Amino acid sequence: MAVSEATKKQIEEFSREQAHHYLDRAELTYWEKLHDKAERTRRKVSRKAARFKSRSDQSIEAQGDRMVYMNDFVEDLMSKGASEAEAFEQARSELVYDSGSERAADVSEQYVERYFDFPGCLDGSAFGGERGNSDRGALYAAIGMYYSGSVLVSCILGAAVGLAVGMAVLDTWFWVGPIVGLVAGAVFGVGVAMLLHARALRGAASGR
Amino acid sequence: MDTHDSACAKNTAGATSEMLKGVLEGMVLEIIRQEEVYGYEIVRRLGALGFEAIAEGTVYALLARLERRRLFVISRRPSELGPPRKFYRLSDRGKKELAAFWLRWEQLAECIEQLRDNKKEG
Questions:
Q1: B60: nearest CB among A71, A95, A132
Q2: Residue A67 and residue B68: Cβ atoms within 8 Å?
Q3: More reliable by pLDDT, A102 or A59
Q4: From B40, B81, B96, residue closest to A8, measured CB to CB
Q5: What DSSP character marks residue A120?
Q6: Going by C-beta distance under 8 Å and a sequence separation of 6 or more, which residues neighbour residue B57?
């Protein structure tokens, strides 16, 4: 039994509104996180802002998932005798985000990931089986090290080269050399770290 | 059904629902192991098995969490609604998680059976 266009629209609107609750904070864009926070405090203002915010692919996908799921639910209720309006209202109340239970489930999963799922814990069998995502913490730590390490090394090299060049070429203005070298080194270091960052993320995404 | 029966059925459903929360993840993984399914189909399968007390919203949220833990391999097929419909299969990680669930279940069931037998003997 297919639902009408008006109900489809309502399902789409509801799904868009609810989708971001089901994403990891890491999967949201900065603007989505900002929006999420603002929504809790000033719902009216954030509703207006939502029209202008950009959306992540994950957010669009979550909305699509919710639409399909809710549509199936509404059709199921209608096939059991509910009117379209009743079915929509029931599906809406059933699928609305329950911050208490969802956050509790997320917190308990994050707890397991953080404390029982690090590489040193092997398969985590002592705590009820393999849990997977703990290498995320190691990945973030590695990315942080890429940035700090490459910026530090590049700054030192840049300053040293700048000093040498300054003393050889600039005479009394020799001190300009290390400053320019330091800035150029920092920029170069960030660039190298970004490339390493991208490589690490690509490796993590492909499971390597 | 009189008021007492209705209240009783509600209580029983509530209690069953509370008990199921701990094992729902394993049940959903097992359904997906048996056959590639889409989200709402899992609710239907659970209903057909007699688990009507499980809320549709609970299953949806659980699927989202399991997906984040990369327990599924997902294939997307076009739906008439517009967005693609996701079909779930177990990933290697999902298979390991399911095997661990059944192991835990067997241990738990054994312990509870033992408790009941002790009570009968006592």
A1: A95
A2: no
A3: A59
A4: B81
A5: G
A6: A94, A95, A96, A98
Residue A22 has pLDDT above 60, yes or no: yes
Interface with B, mutate which of A12, A21, A66, A72 (most B CBs under 10 A) = A72
Residue A138: phi and psi, rounded to 5, are -65, -35
Q: Is the CB of residue A42 less than 8 Å from the CB of residue A53? A: no
State which residues form the domain around B27: 3-121
Which of A57-66, A121-130, A192-201, B72-81 has the lowest average pLDDT?
Answer: A121-130
CATH classification at residue B36: 1.10.10.10
pLDDT digits (tens, 9 = 90+) for B27-38: 999 999 999 999
* Residue of B66 and A107 predicted with greater confidence: B66
- In degrees and rounded to multiples of 5, residue B86 shows phi and psi of -90, 130
Split into its structural domains, chain B has a count of 1
